[in-house]
Amino acid sequence: MAERVLQTRHGPVGATVAGEGPTVLLLHGFLFSRAMWAPQLAALADAGFRGVAADLLGFGDTAPAPPGGEIPLHHHAEAALDVLDALGAEGFTAVGYSMGGQVALELVDLAGPRLERLLLSDTFAGLDAPEVRAARYALADRLEAEGTVRYGEEFLPAVLGPTTVATRAEVCELARAMIAAAPPAGAAAALRGRAGRRDLTAVAGGFGGTARVVVGAEDVFDAGVLGAGLAAALGTVDPHVLPGAGHSPSLETPELFDPLLLDLLRAAR
User: What are phi and psi for residue 216, nearest 5 degrees?
Assistant: First the structure.
């Protein structure tokens, strides 16, 4: 695996590149970083693909965000496309998890036919309810005031399922480390941008490539509703529900998640 820091129109972006072959872009979720994709990068390289795990703006190896700032959701997509351009990628698959799934949907418009396949995990295309939107803005202010470590202990049992919390200590420690490393100003700016995002339902409906939706059976955010709605918008089959996983199945149960990703890639080839 090669660690890179690539220049984009929105500043430097860290990326981990592994393998050779058709390109698969991996987009992480809120308070995580590209480090979450290590199992998928290994699986992709072994299967003859090139995995590119990129940090979202405000996280990992990206430019620091100013206090009180806001990073619009489409800026993450623009930066990710610049990373692919720097790596010489033309057609590609996007794998987006949670907030990264919404960034992947922005790529539907931005990348056009270059984006051939989508795998969206534990995310949704529509707008937040007003109270959820207000809570995101309030949390952004709190993260800037308190940092991410304290909130991370509240966030962990929501972002990981109870099976993982009870039995997968190494996954919990990795998630805790990523959350602790998240820059508070960057996390707050990204969260404000996410709260102000547009409705992406029509964008999902206009995607002409191959799509797959994956949801953890223990995902408290999805509650058996959001993934199904996204699958309907994309015109694909019902979401693949993975047992024993919460909001983060690629991290919690890669042994179940990775075969679904590779099946999508091989079928489209």
Answer: -75, 135
